[in-house]
Amino acid sequence: MQSGADSDGDGVGDQSDNCPTKRNANQADKDRDGIGDRCDRDIDGNLAPNTIDNCRTTPNANQTDKDGDGFDNRCDSFPYDPRRH
Hints:
Elements: no helix or strand
């Protein structure tokens, strides 16, 4: 049983919650920066904010997209075919 405040109601107390304002009971933190993925503006830690990152969960600082389909080659199963990803 937890003690103390749990602002987001995810079952993890605020003092140990890595994202106390959004529910994230699993406490996922892909880049291990101490900020839970639900609150992290850069989930993969590659310095490209999630809003413009073309491969949010895989570090890819150069954002390479050879076929121009909007998906980085590391996240694209067909990096040379713009019709599929």
